[in-house]
Structure formats: C-alpha cells, structure tokens
Amino acid sequence: MAFDRVFLDELSARNDIVDVVSQYVHLKKSGANYFGLCPFHNEKTPSFSVSPDKQIFHCFGCGAGGGVITFTMKAEGLEFPDAVRYLAARAGMEVPEQGEADRQAARHRDRLYALCKDAARFYYDTLWKPENRVAQQYFLGRGLHRRTMNRFGLGYAPDSFHALLDAMTAKGYTREEMLDAGLLSRSEKGHVYDRFRGRVMFPIIDVRGNVIAFGGRVLDDSKPKYLNSPETPIFHKSRNLFALNLSKTTKNGYFILAEGYMDVIALHQAGFDCAVASLGTSLTEEQARIIARHTERIVISYDADRAGQAAAQRAIDILKKCDLQVKVLKIPGAKDPDEFIKTKGADAFRALIERSEDHNAYRLEQIAARYDLEDDEARVLFLRDAARMLAGIESSIEREVYAGRAAKMAGVTAEAMNVEVRRELNIRRKRQKAAERREIRSPVVMAQPKDRTLAYTDVKSAKAEENVLRLLFYDQKLAAGLEKELPPAWFSAPVLRKIYERVLALDREGQMVDILSFEGWLEANEMSLLSAILDQGIPPGEHRQEMQEYINTIRMQRVREGKITEEGEDPLLTFGRIKKQNAGGQTI
Known about the structure:
five-stranded mixed beta sheet, 26 helices, 16 strands, 11% strand
C-alpha cells in the first residue's frame, strides 16, 4: 500500500463516506443504508446506496462501487494519490511520505501543473508584445476588455516551432514533460516542436484553479481552425468544462451552456458569470453530471446554424437524463450569443433567457420546421414524428400539454393527437416488457458482474467464491489455515482469486481485511465488483459451517473439470505416483 495504513485509517475516520457522498448526492436514509440518484450514470429511480457500517458505496444500476477514496476518485476525476490528498486537505491532515514510485508520479503531475501554468504565462506575455498587435486586435476587435482578457488568461502562441520549447527549457522543464503536457508534438523522424503556433490561446483551468490544457485558434483561414490539447495525465476532456472554475460560484441559479470559448467569455463580460462550454467535443454524459452538481437549471445557447441546432438536440437528451430543467435559447437576428450581445446588449439577452423555451416546445418546433404543415401528407408525417417525441416524456401532464400544442400546430383535434401518442406509448411498453422477459430468461447473465471484462466462466463456483470473500471480510478469523483447505488455484474467476490472495497476504502480515485495504490496489471495475459482493451482507448463522459448504462447492466444481481429485490433489501428480508404484513396487 502506497500510504501508511494508520494514516489511511485516520483519513477514513475523518472523511465519513456518508458526509463525503452527501456533497454530491442527495441521500435519504432507508434502514441501515442511505440511498440516492447515482452521480455516475443517469437514472430516475435511486439505485445508489451508501453503507455507513461498511463505509462503502454501491450502485445497483451501473455497478460502480468502493470506499470513500474510490468515490472521490470518480467524483473528482482524480488518481488515487490525488484523491487521498484531496480528502486529507478536506480533513485538515498532513499527507505522510509515500513510496518512491508514488512520490515520483505525484512529483510528475505537480511538474505538469507548474509547466502548464508557466506556459500560460508565456502565452499571455507574448500576446502583449508590440509585434503581436494582430493577435491583440483579434480579441479587442471582438469587443473584449483588457480586464476580461486578464481574467481568462488569454494569450498568443508565436508562429515558431520552438519558441515555447526554448522558453520552458530555460525554466528547467524537460522535453518529455512538455510532451506529456501536450505542449509539444513529435514528428515521424522524432523531432519535437511546439504544438501551438500562430494561434490565440485559451487556457483551460480546472475547478481547483490549475491550468491543465489549452485551446488555440488560428488568425487566418488555415486548418484546423481550433486546436486543443490532447488527453494528458492532468487533462481529460470529458471531466472538465471551460470556465467552470468561474461559473461554479454564480448566484444566477442556472448555467448557460454555450458552444465555444469566445461565446463563454463574451457572456461573462456581459455579466452572465454562469456560462460554460464543453471542450472541443460534443457534450458528454460526464460533463452533464458535473453541471448537475452545481445547478438544477440549464439554458442551452448554441449557434443558430444547422450544426448548432443538431448539437442542441443531442445535449437535451444528455442533460434531461441528469434530471436538469432544460431550456433552449432562440437567438433572433444573430448567429451566436456574442453577436447578439454586441448588437442588442446584455439586457436584451437577459430577456431572451427569461423567454427561453422549454426543451419540449423547442423540439416540437424543430420537428415542425422539417415539414410543410399546409400539405396534408406532410402534416401526417409531422404528427407521427411528434408522437414519437411526446411518448418519451415521462410526465403525463407535460405529455398532454405538448400534445395539445402539436395538435394546434397541425390543425387537428387534441384527441386525435393523443390517440397517436398512446399508440407510441404502447409500442414502447411492449418493447420494454419484451426486454424484461429476455432478461428473466437469462439468469446466468444476471449473475455475472456488471463489467463483462470480469465475466465468470463458472458461475456456480464463482458465486461460492464470492461468498468466501464476503465471509472473510465479515470475520477475518476465518482466514486462519484457510489456504490449505482452499488453495487460490481453485478459484475459477481471476479477479476473485486476486482478491482472495490479497486477503490471505493481509492476514499473514497481521493487517486488517477491509475495503480500505483495497483502495488504490484494485482497478476501478474490480473495486466495483468487490463492493457489490460486500453490499449483499451476511446472513446470521454458523459461518464456519457456511465456509465449509462454499469450499466443498468450489472443490466439486474443480473435480468435475478434472483439475483435482476428490481429495483435492492434482490428478497428474496422483497418476505419476501410480506409475512409479507399478514400475518399482512401491510408492515414492
């Protein structure tokens, strides 16, 4: 274990899992556990449980699980050592020295953070050099104030293959560090050069204030128009949002989801300090969950062109799964928020937000725009498309309201529209029931781990192996002498054998067997499986007798496979002894 066990025990004691999870999830107590909506996947019915007794979390929907450190890793997008530091800072604890490998990894990440910060300063300083007035004018010509530019740390990467390389080398950074931070690229011949050249620069800053990446835009018509940092040890696109570090403290009560860096910056300058944007890609489910941690309401303000409207449709689906109240802004007479604010002003834009449409109304209008509603055949097609959309609305009241709106748009009665919607609902229900029947008929699949990479080849044995582990975590005394009765090699599932071997090793070393002993040691999917096993609890009874029954089940499965004899021996060794006895007259 990279961190001292005494320290981790204290860290866990000071960061009770219910308290930590409650910062991200609204929990309600039910019996011995707490339940809420899972922050790691989209759901309407709470399937996420937290056990204060076992100090574990487990989601019955997506299978995620683990202890308080694993939860922090997933919730904050951190590696194990960084999650430990995060929790230590939360509890006001000093982090002790770690193993050399972990210290090196932590130092490397700290160096990358420092490097990106210094690179941002370099780009900022370069922007304001007299010879770079063209780059300055790009921002000033877009109406940005110097104070806004400073607040966002905007800069310029000179049109040079080695300007940043030379500047950062002079500060003591290595080429390998610059490559790892995504600041350099390597040619096919192995030469390294500045990744960003001749571009205005937008630093990407995480919620803790660290510069983690960059976006760069050309000043001419060359391609690509925008260039973004690649994934690095400190930057993951799907886990971050542009300007979230500023928007997280907004008092507006809602977020504005814009399409690009300049839109976000212009909105902040105009007083809308709640604007964010995804990073060079379409909105992801992980980004939507991040937004849902900070607000319950979101206004989509994408460009008015076809690509922007298509992106808005995709974003609606993702955001609604996070139970957010979604509205869509229609920007008349302008292609984006930046242009509208320049021509109409901030007050006019605020009025647009107040009049923004519910996402259902927006979708109906988008469907209607595809058809000529003066044509009878087109109206029929519109009504069928609208019915399919309306059938996806969970609230019957909402469904009826928007069905009435669709009927009015097409010039038919509300009852006719409702008949079509009910037909679509029946089709959906039949499909759902068919899927449920298929699931019921596949008990073996249901008995498998959520992650198919951990699939069991022998379900009967694996379930007994799971029960062995559950008993050992409940009563560590059962581990005494167990390896002789149940060798690790008898385990059919590699992941369960891995956990079992770790349990035996911990017991031999006199260490405690609990979830904390596996944090940072198991992979995320393996930890989720372990938490699912432990979450099932232990029924009352004679546990030594139960353990023997599970061992017998595992042994008989290996006997059936021919891997051991009924006495638990390797059949090849037994066969070897018989051959020697026949040849020499005695057993050797």
